[in-house]
User: Which sequence fits this backbone?
């Protein structure tokens, strides 16, 4: 009888559900942040060949390095979870949609005369970084993700992008 109870208890322990490693919100966050970061990288690269203040070139270079590393990490996590890296933008429309900068704004920035570039760059990059914060807040909000790495990334995105926006707002154009 005692053996039967012990066996039953052990069986019950073995079937205890472990919390999920990730959920749909984690996958959505990564799938949305990857293209958002890639576009951010495209934007900050534009500053390297333009006459912008040194502090802005330095910030743009730092953003590029950070976001490239984040993209590499996110792609690796999605591969480990056997999840697709991309889905159609409409797939996430119910979650507020993609937080992307309009391609027209990026195009206008690319062709802006040097005298107008810094001001336009500051405006476009500020919006881009704020979009990343909105995505990250969704991951860490109610009903958000459960994966510790994705939630930590979201926390870091909120902190870093918020600090970058403050820096951008203080640059003299």
Assistant:
């Amino acid at each position: 009888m005692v053996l039967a109870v012990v066996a039953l208890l052990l069986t019950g322990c073995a079937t205890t559900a472990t919390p999920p490693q990730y959920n749909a919100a984690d996958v959505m966050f990564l799938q949305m942040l990857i293209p958002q970061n890639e576009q951010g990288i495209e934007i900050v690269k534009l500053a390297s060949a333009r006459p912008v203040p040194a502090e802005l070139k330095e910030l743009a270079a730092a953003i590029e390095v950070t976001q490239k590393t984040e993209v590499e990490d996110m792609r690796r996590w999605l591969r480990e979870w056997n999840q697709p890296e991309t889905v159609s933008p409409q797939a996430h429309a119910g979650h507020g949609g993609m937080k992307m900068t309009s391609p027209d704004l990026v195009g206008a920035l690319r062709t802006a005369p040097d005298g107008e570039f810094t001001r336009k760059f500051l405006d476009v990059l500020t919006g881009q970084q704020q979009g990343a914060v909105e995505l990250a807040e969704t991951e860490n909000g109610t009903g958000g993700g459960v994966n510790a790495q994705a939630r930590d990334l979201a926390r870091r995105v909120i902190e870093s992008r918020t600090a970058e926006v403050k820096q951008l707002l203080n640059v003299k154009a």
About this structure: Confidence is low (pLDDT under 50) at residues 1-15. The radius of gyration is 21 Å. The first helix runs from residue 2 to 14. The CA atoms of residues 26 and 130 lie 19 Å apart.
